[in-house]
Protein 1
Amino acid sequence: METFLLFLVVGVFAQAVDGALGMAYGVISSSVLLAFGVPPATASASVHGAEVFTTAASAGSHIWHKNVEWRLFIPLAIAGVIGGVFGAYVLAGIDGKVIKPFVVAYLALMGCYILWRATRNTPARRISPAWIVAPLGAVGGFFDAIGGGGWGPTVSSTLVGAGSEPRRAIGTANTAEFFLTVAISATFVWALVTGHWKDADALTNHASAVAGLVVGGLLAAPFAGYITKVIPQRALTYAVGGLLLLLAGFQGLQLAKVF
């Protein structure tokens, strides 16, 4: 019960941040699981299993509050699924830490750029043509499967950096993430059934943690769309950039084995 309650709190906090800023649920949840000694593939599978439920609730909230730019949603979702499936298959057979330093460097650079844009109060602009975001979706999906939470930091931040209105960038990325999460979870199940994933038995040892992440995330997810809608654009831009730098710093310290 203590494990369930601990991860319920983690799930509430992670989803509150993720729903409002378009990132951090996967990174926070995966980091806590890894800190408890959970293998990387098991941590990623656990988080994505929880996200099937939380992203559905979060997506519904963003759709309700009209935060989704549908013309960008379609290429993002399709390409994200492709990248995520490939990343999940790769992670089930290798150590995902190999690519982690490149992700951390990207987050730090993008965080600095977004904060610079915020200081200049640059107005939002239309991203065109819509299909240009497809490669971003593929890369974000791959990073998400490999790192257990790379979709939001990669996709939401890049859309904001490219000039998209922050609340629509976050709402679009969060809604597309539901389909990505379902695809990644299905790939882990397939890898388990076919024997490609050797450490899958560890999942049964962390069922209470996953349940806590699901319940905590579901408690916070319905408020995602409203929070993103009411926060002023410039404040939201600052928040996204600042969070990216915090995430990059945190993961950088993990890579350096500071903790």
Note: Residues 166-194 form the longest helix (29 residues).
Protein 2
Amino acid sequence: MTAIPAAKATATAPPAISALGLRKSYGDKVVLNGIDLSISEGTIFALLGPNGAGKTTTVEILSTLIAPDAGQARVAGHDLAERPDGVRAAIGVTGQFAAVDSLLTAEENLLLMADLQHLPRREGRRRAAELLERFELSEAARKPVSTFSGGMRRKLDLAMTLVGDPRIIFLDEPTTGLDPRSRRTMWEIIRGLVADDGVTIFLTTQYLEEADQLADRIAVLDRGQLVAEGTADELKRLIPGGHIQLGFSDLAELDVAARRFGAAARDPEELTLRIPSDGSIPTLRAVLDVLDDAAIRAESLTVHTPDLDDVFLRLTGHGTPDTTTEMAR
């Protein structure tokens, strides 16, 4: 795996989620082939991968829905095998499809979840009202969920997950099927959970932009193995093709600059010079220093780095994720 070191957990802040050598097979189909994870508290971690890579299986193992064939994991300080009840008490799980009862109202769904969490009746009603307001569902609180839009159903589903006040939330493709506006509303809600409540989010998504926008760290899973992990910017720098493009007002300035940057690609028609770059600040500073030392005046400067689509294509070789149901989970 191409690994970029995560921030080390301190003695007072152990990882919210850690795993070592997780493996899972279904018959002769190997779904997870020994993955290691370390996810810091109060962060958003995104797991990317093509369909069948094992994303949902990872979530199911870490949320105690299924047992691994091998490996160890701790979630919220609890050993997955020895204290599964402790894990369940500390987490919430939201899947690809909203797990709400369409025949009930939004308020009734939340109160039902409060009963399942064994909250006292008064506390359950207080919590339901608080969540309805937070997710801007108060006006629709007593309407049947069958009348809700997809975005409203997803918000209610996440609100139900929060009834038990979990410290870690697994979001398995939470915005699948939502329109762009509803998706961005969910992004704001997810950011708020981390910023305001200190919740840890484990996110799987088929939308690369979503991981780029939300995640503190991203891991790419392919054929049951983690092939890379790092921040979005770190992952982008793994892929060649990044460059700094300089624009000039005339051919003479372009020619002077081209002589200073031997590896650059010169375009006399567009009056541009493309200089290979890893996108880092030191590289940009070095280019500016050369221009300054040679008294070269560039009319424009733009930094181009590969995006997560490029990273995904290069690391998995299967194309970007799609909406097809994961056959191998």
Note: DSSP finds eleven helices and 15 strands in the chain.
